[in-house]
Design a protein that fits this description.
CATH topology: Jelly Rolls
Distance between the termini: 29 Å
Structural class: mainly beta
Largest sheet: 5 strands, antiparallel
CATH superfamily: Jelly Rolls
CATH class: Mainly Beta
Number of helices: 3
Shape: globular
Length: about 190
């Protein structure tokens, strides 16, 4: 992972690039570790934007209930080059390289975001693992809903360049109330 790259360095947003080679550990495909985002005082957690530049990604999003092992929403989005995926407020996420080539993706996030890897570490991954045989439920979770499949948010040549040109259009990355109003993937931030 390459963090805080130009052209956003020094701005309110951070631009990162992540590279995941095509490989497996047993039957499980290469993936990120998974994390949740912090939230501003009394508000929903911060959202994040990803864009795929090469390869094929499976974005796994999950929203916990009262405790981390009780998941109330589980969303999967398949994305290819040019696709943009939004991680809504309150959702933890993992990205899996499901293609035969190296996955290259970028993300834009509010600079003040802190990642919390703890729940994914304690529960050893997301509520479902993606393997060569498909999805397998992670038995460390006490409640897991059915998988909901969604489409990417939009296609774009370069989301980071759009952000640099029209910062006001992306204010929802740092104003989580505005992100909740947009209801990405139908997510409801009512219970934060």
């Amino acid at each position: 992972m390459y963090r805080d790259l130009p052209p956003l360095r020094g701005s309110w947003a951070r631009f990162d690039v992540t590279v995941i080679p095509p490989w497996k550990v047993g039957d499980e495909l290469a993936k990120t570790k998974g994390h949740y985002h912090n939230s501003p005082l009394g508000k929903p957690p911060y959202p994040e934007i990803y864009q795929v530049h090469a390869g094929e990604a499976l974005y796994i999003l999950q929203k916990p209930g009262e405790i981390a092992s009780k998941i109330v929403d589980f969303v999967v989005i398949r994305a290819t080059p040019g696709d943009v995926v939004v991680i809504p407020p309150g959702y933890g996420h993992v990205t899996v390289n499901v293609g035969e080539e190296t996955l290259v993706m970028s993300n834009v996030i509010y600079r003040g975001v802190k990642s919390n890897y703890g729940p994914f570490e304690r529960l050893r991954g997301a509520a479902y693992h993606f393997t060569t045989s498909g999805f397998l439920k992670n038995d460390r979770y006490s409640e897991v809903p059915e998988i909901r499949f969604e489409k990417e948010w939009k296609r774009s040549e370069a989301i980071v360049l759009e952000l640099v040109k029209e910062e006001h259009s992306f204010i929802w990355l740092r104003d989580t109330d505005k992100a909740c109003e947009m209801r990405f993937l139908g997510a409801d931030c009512g219970d934060k």
